[in-house]
Each structure stands twice: as structure tokens, then as C-alpha cells.
Amino acid sequence: MATRCAWGAAVRRPSKAIAGLVAGLLAGCSMAPTYVPPATVAATAPAAFKEASGWSAAAPQDAAPRGDWWTIFNDPVLNDLESRVEAGSPTLAAALARFEQARANARLTAADLYPSLSVGSGVSRERQSARRPNASAASTFTDVTVGGSLSYEVDLWGRIRDSVRADRADAEASAADLASARLSLHTALADAYYRLRGLDAQATLLNQTVEAFGRAQELTRARHEGGVASGLDVSRADTVLADARSQLSAVAASRAAVEHEIAALIGANPSVFALAPVDQRLDPPPVPAGAPSELLQRRPDVAAAERRVFAANARIGAARAAFFPNVTLGGSGGFEAVSGALFSTPATYWALGPLQAALAVFDGGARRARLGISRGEYDEAAAQYRQAVLTAFRDVEDGLAASRYLAAQSSDQRDAVLAAERTRDLAITRYRDGASDYLDVVTAQTAALQSAQDLLTVQTSRMRAAVALIRALGGGYGAN
């Protein structure tokens, strides 16, 4: 058992015995094992990320500044929404309340490091019997006391200090949880915002499509009235036009739901919240090739998991200390008088003690069971820490892969859109010249619309992937 004492060899010289004893009372020992973060975590950290060269990883340290990372998207509407999210979000308010509770609990535990002092006073009127032992007459008097008492547990074995260390680590973990909740909230808002803008782009495309299909329908009706086109061509034109209008209504319904989601994220009433549609180009910010090299330094969830391992380690020490005597010092003093000046020298009283040492001899294995629980909690926290690290690396690999492959997909999809538009224009020209029937036009129009919608879907996915990568990196592509 690794035990760290501040006074184990304090009495080699008699002249230092008293000083060693005092130091022992004040410093004591710690029964907690020497803390070392789980070694297997370091083994899982790669030298570089597989999905992007120039990226590497380091150890947890979540104090790195994040800043307003969303400004890299250069969108003033998003900037405004992100500035409102922290003030109005109930989710963040709840996380902040949990942090305040953890911090107060750490202060409560730390109070046991200091003596407990209480003061009080009392006044009593008494009559004593004349027949009491060693008395010759009855007496009546008023007894007045003013005094205090002191109690102090000498933390020889570090039970209190290890508990304080554990609760302070829990408070730090709660602070990291708050940072994680804040990061999740901001990234959830950015994700919803770009889903909204993707739907705006879909609506713009469908409005243009409805206009184009309307013109094609008018052309078909004119040709039908002139006896050039059949009624089948008119029905086909009506079908694609009605289908485009139907899709436009579906997009409007989806946009309303996302708008309500954004309102809830910033703590606004969805009934009075609205965002004007904007047709903007969806281009994600570029991923820098060499930043950052400190993934785990920016992940608050990893930091929280590591601090919970430290807390569990400290609680092993508190459980071990229960196998040793519990030493308590006491004292009292004050003033007491039945007549005359209360606060005079003859009216003083004091008592030093008792000095108590208590040790449970038999408890049916309760202390050993508590120690087993503490060790099991440590093993659980260590496993969760390892899982948090693995999840962090997986999230970044996923984000890097998505950014890379979606960029390639977007480029290919643009080529597909251009080809589909050329096919559509050629089909309309051939139909107008009488070289083909309207089925070719409908097929080409449908393919061109689908191809354009697919491109918008990919562009929206690229924006969402950029947000997801920022979240995976703990907020931003680098220190802001």
C-alpha cells in the first residue's frame, strides 16, 4: 500500500520530537495510492490522425481558450444567434447549477479541515435543598454562564484531505461538464442554423423550378392547342409541376420545424421567433493542415473523465483511512458566576480535552466492503476515461473523413448538375423543334432537379461536418 506521510521519521533526535509531533498533527498522511492517469490511454494516442496528415494529439488540458469559434463562418446572423444562446438556454442554466452544487459540496467537505467552534450562554435560577450532601442550609441563586467549546478531528491518516481532494476534482469535472454543455449548445445551434440555410437553398431551387416547369407547361398547352402535342404531354407537364410544388410545401414544413428548434436553443418563444429566408452559398471554412496538435487539450469531456479518475483515486485513500484510529481533540472555556462581575478573572473556567481515539474493532467487513467499492469506482472511472479518449479520436477521424470525402463529392456533384442541365436544355430544344416527345423533357427535367437537390444536400452536409469537426476538436480549429 502506497502511503505518503509527512512525519514518519520525525523523531530521530529527541530535540525534534515535539516539532515532529506537531507537524504530524497538522500534516498527517495520505492513504491514497500515488495518482497516475491510466497508462493505457497514452498507448491509444496515435502520433498523427489517419484521415489528415499534420495532425497529432496530446494529453488532457482543457483550459485552452476557444473564443467565438463560430465567427470563422463569417455569417452575421449566426453570430447574433450564438451571442444569445448562453443567456437564454435552460440546458446551460441547469449545467451551471450543477457546477455550483459541486463547488459548494467541495467547500462543505473542506470545512472539516478546520476546528469546529461554538459559543453560547445560559442563565438559570436554582434552589438547592438544605438536605443535600455536605450542606447546612438551603440556597437559592442565579447561575450565569458565557463560554464556548472547540472540537477538532486530527487528520492523521488523510481521510479528510483525500475527501477534499476528491470533491475538488469532482468540482473541476463539473466545470468541464459545463464547458462541454456550452460547446454542445453552440454547435447544436450552428448545426440547426445550417440545416435551415440548406432548406432555404432548397426552397429557392424549387421556386425557380416551379417557374421553369410552369413555362414548360404553358409551351406544352400551346402546342396541344395547336394540334402539335398530345394530351399525354400536357398531363406529363402538369405532373412534374405539381410534384415540384408539393416538394416546396414539404421543404417549408421542414424549415418551420428547424426554425422552432433554433428558437428553443436560444430560449426564445417559437411563436414569436422568426428568421428571414436567405439564399446564400454554403461553403465551409477550410480545415487547416497543421492545427491543432492538442486534441485532448481542447476536449472538456476528456478532461472531466480524467478528473473523475483522480477523485476516485483519492476516495480510495479515504476508505483506507477508516482502518486506523479516529483522533479527536476537544476543549471548552468561558465565564461563570452566581453574583458579582461575570467577566472577571475569578469567573473564568476552562477544560482541555477530551483527547479521544476511536477504532472500530469489528464491523462485519463494512470497511473492507467500502474499500472494495472505492477500488471498483476507480476502475470504472479509468475505463470511462479510456473510452472518452477513444471516442475523441473517433470523432475527429470521422470529422476529417467527412470533410475530405464530402468536398470530393461536392465537386463531382457539380459536374453532374452541369451535365443534367445541358441534357435538360437539349431535350427542351429538341421537343420545341419536334425532334422528340415530351417524355424526354420530363425525364431530363426530373434528373436535373434531383441532381441540383443532391448538390444542395451535399453542401449542407459539408457545413454540418465542419460544425461537427469543431465540436470534436473541443471548439475551433485552433486557439482563438
Automatic annotation (TrEMBL):
Signal sequence, renumbered to the chain: 1-32
Entry-linked Pfam families: OEP
Record membrane topology: Lipid-anchor
Membrane-crossing segments per the record: none
Keyword terms, alphabetized: Lipoprotein, Membrane, Palmitate, Signal, Transmembrane, Transmembrane beta strand
Subcellular location: Cell membrane
The family this protein is said to belong to: Belongs to the outer membrane factor (OMF) (TC 1.B.17) family.
PANTHER family associated with the record: BLR4455 PROTEIN, OUTER MEMBRANE CATION EFFLUX PROTEIN
Classification via NCBIfam families: outer_NodT (TIGR01845)
Protein name per UniProt: Efflux transporter outer membrane subunit
Organism of derivation: Sphingomonas quercus
